[in-house]
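We read letters as residues; the fold follows as tokens. Both lines appear below.
***
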Amino acid sequence: MPDKGFEEKVVKLIYKLLACLVVASAATGMQATAFAQTTTKAKPAAKAKTKAAKPAETPAVQDEDDMEPDVGQSVTYEYKCELGNFITLYTNVDDEMHVAMRWKKRLYRLTRVDTTTGAKRFENKKAGLVWIGIPAKGMLLDSIRGQQLANECKTPEVVSQVKAETTVTATAPAAVKQVIQ
């Protein structure tokens, strides 16, 4: 069994090593900041132009992800998700390649991405949003941060259908339960 004094010495040594690491990492950060400040050159002041300003050019073609979706003639699907999140999807019969999605008080335009699984996948690359929908549920992902934003998103129709199936299975006789499974 080790001596108590020995344990105290080891603990003190570990604390000293940690303190040295903290100081060293702080010093490294300061050196990097000082280096960055010395290597950047100040830009010369902009010269005043004496010529008349050119007329504004027409903006380039707007990115598809930036376009404001028109939800006036759309079919609306309200999804309730885990953790109290809500998503509203707007689909248009005339445009199966796009959906509009309301998430956190903003409206996004998402473009369909082909899948081999049959799932419906829509993306807005600029915002980093990915909506994946299967008949039982949907989920919203953040492709920039690599995390889920909403999961177990279901419409009221899916929730009631799942409850009905659960009730039938729970009340069915044992022989029927084996057939269902």
Summary: Residues 4-39 form the longest helix (36 residues). The longest strand covers residues 95-103. The CA atoms of residues 43 and 114 lie 47 Å apart. The beta strands are 75-80, 86-92, 95-103, 106-113, 120-124, 129-133, 138-142, 147-153.
